[in-house]
TrEMBL record:
Domain of life of the source: Bacteria
An individual GO BP term: carbohydrate metabolic process
Keyword Hydrolase: yes
Record domain Glycoside hydrolase family 20 catalytic: where: 76-322
Keyword field: Hydrolase
GO terms, molecular function: beta-N-acetylhexosaminidase activity
A family per Pfam: Glyco_hydro_20
Iron listed as a keyword: no
Listed name of the protein: Glycoside hydrolase
InterPro entries with a match to the protein in the record: GH (IPR017853), Glyco_hydro_20_cat (IPR015883), HEXDC-like (IPR038901)
Family: Belongs to the glycosyl hydrolase 20 family.
Length: 366
């Protein structure tokens, strides 16, 4: 009887270690369109859950039939019933389901103003910058994506309605606010923000959102690029900040989870966030080798850290920047030995395989 118990205990430990190499083994992807919900549920049920994904960030934005702010519904948005299908399959596989609505930045894309500034143009940080009919980068206005003005007295009344409702329908414990690639902040022509410190403005906005969430015991996640100094790191203006927001890393609440995305190399910036007392997740995109290196990097950080730092290295999260349906179709048609290994699908497979390869290490560790 004792030997049987020992065998069962050992098997249980192996299963536990195999499924929990990291606290976060995630995927960030656009929420499916209304006609793709069943396909997405099947993908979670047959692929993501069984292969170890335990965290799913869904970029919803305006793709939901908001009841609190119906004027901000997108075209053919997801219904509450459809969201509940996503919630149910996530619960089945013990997946932490986190909705994302882009706050502050990413209020436009290319030649299109997104719903918030379309309906509420008074929230625009740079109303003098017009969306061109034909968008090109670079451009004279430095326009990548529009931002809302964080100091507009009414903007949070609107966006917090969206945040509260989407968290409720998702039955979520956390919320992702995006906040990456914020190029328009403290604009010199903004009557409220001109002359103010960009780092303080950014940090205050992060903390305002974070503290709103904390009132209901929810946690804020954001992308980390605005908190890295582009000049001293040499990382550049996309994956780090060249508009003086990096000092916000010392001003934001320690409860905020940082999604540290780097797509060309496994840059060691997770250590920066951990040293600042912030929980951090490394995020790849389409290069399988980068995903493998990020998995190993995060494991090595954990193994070679003090307990005070080790707890901050939460894991890895693959990012997808195409439609959910398009990604699912490609995932099923592309296998590991594809002729085109540099792809989102190959990268996800590489990340999951690298995590699996760590399991024997985890099983033999003290």
């Amino acid at each position: 009887m004792g030997k049987i118990f020992l065998i069962l205990l050992t098997l249980g430990t192996l299963v536990c270690n195999g499924q929990n190499t990291f606290k976060v083994q995630g995927l960030c992807i656009a929420a499916p369109n209304a006609d793709g919900v069943d396909e997405f549920v099947k993908f979670v049920d047959e692929e993501l859950g069984p292969n170890g994904i335990n965290t799913l960030v869904l970029r919803v934005d305006f793709n939901y039939a908001y009841e609190s702010r119906p004027e901000l519904r997108g075209t053919n948005p997801l219904s509450k019933e459809q969201i509940k299908k996503l919630v149910a399959v996530a619960k089945k596989h013990h997946i932490n389901l986190i909705p994302q609505v882009n706050l502050l930045g990413h209020q436009s894309w290319a030649g299109k103003t997104n719903k918030l500034l379309e309906v509420y143009p008074q929230f625009d940080e740079t109303p003098h910058v017009k969306i061109p009919e034909k968008y090109e980068w670079p451009n004279a206005d430095g326009l990548y994506c529009k931002s809302y003005c964080p100091l507009h007295p009414k903007v949070h009344n609107v966006v917090f309605d969206l945040v509260d409702e989407i968290i409720s329908v998702f039955e979520a414990e956390a919320f992702h606010a995006g906040m990456d690639e914020v190029f328009y902040i403290a604009d010199e022509k903004c009557p409220r923000c001109q002359g103010k410190d960009p780092a303080t403005l950014f940090a205050n906005e992060v903390n305002k959102i974070s503290r709103h969430l904390e009132m209901n015991n929810k946690r804020l996640w954001i992308w980390g690029d605005r908190l890295i100094d582009a000049s001293t790191s040499g990382i550049g203006m996309w994956e780090a900040s060249m508009n003086n927001t990096a000092r916000a890393i010392d001003l934001i609440d320690k409860s905020v989870v940082i999604c540290d995305w780097h797509y060309e190399k496994a840059l060691p910036t997770p250590a920066l966030f951990a040293l600042k007392g912030l929980d951090v997740i490394a995020c790849p995109w389409k290069k399988p080798e980068v995903a493998r290196e990020q998995v190993m990097m995060m494991y090595n950080f954990k193994e070679n850290s003090t307990p005070e730092m080790e707890k901050h290295f939460l894991g890895v999260m693959h990012t997808v920047w195409s439609s959910a349906s398009g990604f699912i179709k490609s995932y099923h048609t592309q296998k590991e030995k594809t002729k085109h290994p540099v792809s989102q699908e190959a990268c996800l497979r590489a990340m999951l395989a690298a995590i699996k390869d760590l399991e024997p290490i985890g099983e033999n560790s003290d």
